[in-house]
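REQUEST FORM: STRUCTURE PREDICTION
Request ID: SP-0412
Submitted by: Lab K.M.
Chain count: 1
Length (residues): 229
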Amino acid sequence: MATFTLHTETVQSWLPLTRLHILCHLVVVLLLFYYRFTTLFYDTNTPTVPVILMTIAEALLALLWFFNQSFRWRPVSRSVIPEKLPIDDNLPGLDIFVCTLDPEKEPTVDVMDTVISAIAMDYPSNKLAVYLSDDGGCPVTLFGMREACEFSKVWLPFCKKYGIKSRCPKVFFSPMGEDEQLLRTEEFRAEQEQIKARKSETLDTTDPIPLDSVPDFAPNLDPAFIMVG
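STATUS: Completed
RESULT:
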């Protein structure tokens, strides 16, 4: 077992058996090619074209198998050591860029969930910056980001207060996030219902945000690059 700065690396205990299996397989593959070539060059009664085609196909499969053994030759398992992480003051600054273009192909609601998840990362807020690059400069996206920022003002304190790990609202309020909601207090459930209602107003929709619900923005003044957190 090797110990590094932030993780430990352990070689799997069945490594000798894995390598023995690879070597046995390699011997079988070499014997197969030996048989194919001897049949091709010395057996005049065997049809040449079918043997050549079979040999080519087997050579391609053998080549794929050979390259796949690179990660099986020395399989390791790694375990992180979070207690060795530096204190918040020593962590580097982190910039997250979210790119979007067309709200019809990339629904604004999904972009809002992505941005909120990035803002809610478990990282010092003074060293985390989230940027949205809207290449289309669409007013719907700008409106969605303003709504997402308003929702994040209640979502982030909730996540930090109760140690929520699934910080994407879409995941937390789905069946995948039910484990986070077990064995919680009544206070938690009351706040959860309030945030769920707020989420329904801003994020829960199966249709794109209609243009007639978006405030009028000047097309030439809508920023294509927004810092959202």
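NOTES: The longest strand covers residues 94-100.
Reviewed by: T.R.
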